[in-house]
Amino acid sequence: MKRIFLLFSLFFCAFALADTKVVNVYNWSDFLPPHLIKQFEKETGITVNYAEFDNNETLYTKIKHSKHGDYDIITPSSYMVDRMRQEGLLHPIDKTLLTNWHHLDSFFLNRDYDPDNKYSVPYLWSSTGIAVNTLYHNPKEITKFADLWQPQYHHQLLALDDLRDCFTIALLKLGDDINSVNPDTIKEAYRALIDLMPNIRVFNSSAVANMFIDEDITVGFAWGGDTFLASRENPHITFIYPQEGFQISLDCLVIPTNAQHVKEAHQFINFLLRPEIISQIPPRIGYATPNKTANLSLPADLRHNPIINPSPQVLKRAKFQRDLGTANRIYERYWERLKIGAD
Ligand code: N2P
């Protein structure tokens, strides 16, 4: 009798497991409020397994070496979408399953990094600019990335711990293309970063808001999203869109080629495209949404906040990052040397 009961239980468990629907999400740290995950689970009966990363390169390595389809949704930035799609790491998006697609703002669609958005759905965006605490620094003296090289910022700057963001500010300072693949130009950008090192106090990209709130750091280049969060807690913090131009950091929802739960992944994406869902994210995590319907419903102070939503005039200076192909290796080598302090 006992044995029959045990067999029955095992059979029941296996049946229950097979029937459990899941979606495995791998997202940037602090990039989705937990209550929305719960809401999705409740609405759909799909269990969300959730993990976080801190930079595109970590994400890339995980996906490149994931043999068994560990993830169904990941959120690379535009340049990494470009690289992954070219390397065959992404599953095409089935837009017929995304009934909320039409809410997206066309400014963010059909860019070079993914023509026709065959593989990616814009999720959240921000700009890389200069964050300044006006109690300590005169923001009028900082209008461009090049100003960060001034000796007055000796040992003061926060630098994003992010290869592309660091090279981009150096390339902009030099007046070069932020997607340059010319070895001489990349070398010049590296030399410029070496020159910047005495001013850098810390490399960090996951605790930026808190560092500014606590005034451990008072100036540096940062993502607008973190700076916005910090500015709500510490009113002396402001954000400058540099004159040379600046990079848009657009993070996208994509499905890896070997994902095991493609249908559930589309359901998750469509949920995040729903205006009443995505509009809950900017007030909580500081990043802006490319969903135009959601933007209209944001509280006015957020809608008109220049950190979250820069004017169309400012946006004209915005640049999108693309993949660098074989030049990636050159950047990576210089990045490693920079971080270990070799020249
Ligand atoms: C915030 C995540 C930042 C995403 N922790 C930058 N692309």
What would you say this structure looks like, in words?
- With 343 residues, the protein is an alpha/beta fold.
- The protein has two domains: 2-123 and 250-304, Periplasmic binding protein-like II (D-Maltodextrin-Binding Protein, domain 2, 3-Layer(aba) Sandwich); 126-248 and 320-340, D-Maltodextrin-Binding Protein, domain 2 (3-Layer(aba) Sandwich).
- Helices cover 40% and strands 18% of the residues.
- It is built from 15 helices and twelve strands.
- The strands form three sheets. Strands 5, 6, 7, 8, 9, 10 and 12 form a seven-stranded mixed sheet that branches. It has a three-stranded parallel sheet with strand order 2-1-3.
- The protein is globular and about 60 Å long.
- The N and C termini lie far apart (75 Å).
- The mean pLDDT is 93.
- The chain binds pentane-1,5-diamine (N2P).
- Pentane-1,5-diamine (N2P) binds at residues 28-31, 77, 206, 223, 249, 251.
